[in-house]
Amino acid sequence: MTQTQTRQLQRSQSDLGILMGKTARTLVLLVASIWVLAPLILMIIASFKSVPEFFMNPFGLPDEWMFSNYSRAWTDANLSLTLPNTIIVTTVAVLVSTLLSSMIAYGLSRKKKKYAMGLYTLFVSGLLVPVQAIILPLFIVLKAIGFFGTLMALIFPYIAMGLPLGVLVLTPIASALPHELIQAARMDGASEWQIFSRIVLPLMKPGLISVSILNGVWMWNEFFIPLILAFKPEVQTMPVGIVSFIGAYSTEWGLVFSSVIVSTLPVVIAYLFMTRQFQSGLTAGAVKG
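Below the sequence we write its predicted C-alpha cells.
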C-alpha cells in the first residue's frame, strides 16, 4: 500500500469516526428529548380526558376532548385565588432575596479572603439544611410574631431560603468585577449605594436573572411550606390547591393534570423568554471562585 493510499484510508477512518460520534450524540439527544417530552405530552392529553376514559385509554387520544376540565380546575381547585397568591409570594420573595443576595455577594467580594470565606461558607451551608428540619421552629416563630396563616408566613421563609443559592451564584460574579471601575467611581464622588445600584447591579444582570429563575421555580412549585403554614384557604398557593382533587377513594385526574398545566405555563414562558440570560448567568458564575 502506497503512502497516498494509507493517508486516504486514515482520512476515511477519521471521517467514519466523526460520523459515528455525531450519530451517537444525535441518538442520545433524541432519547433524552423523548424521555422529557413524552410525560409532558401524555399529561397534556390526559388533561382533556374524563376519569373513566383516563383509566380505559391512558395513553391514547381522548374520544371527547373535555375542555371543561380547565374551567372546572379554575373554580373547583380555586385557581382564581391560589394563582394570584402564588404570583405575589413568588414575585416578592424572588425580588427581595435576589437583591439581598447581590448585596451580600458584593460585600463578600470586597472583604479579605480569610474573612469572606468563612461568611461565604456559612451562607452556602444553608443549602444543606432541609426545610423539614426547621419547620417546627419556623412555625413557632411565625405564630409568635403574628404572621402565621398569612402570605407573610410564606414570603419570609422563602426569602431566607433563597439567600444561600443567590450568594453561591453571585459571589464569584461580584469577585470578577473590575476593581478599577469601582475605584474610579469612588474618585468621582459616587456613594457606595450609587456604585452598587448603577455599576455593580447592571454588571451582575445575567447572574441575577439566573438566581431569579432558579429560586422562582422552586418557590412557585414548593408544596410543604404552604401546606403547613398557609392553612387558610384564602392564602393557599397552587400546589396545595391542586391536591384538593386527590381523594382517598377517587381522584379527578383530568382536573389534576389541567391544574398542573395551568400552574406550569407561567414558569415555562418566563424561562423561554430568559433562556439566553440564564445560560450566560450560569457561565459567569463559573468564571471565578
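The chain has a mean pLDDT of 81.
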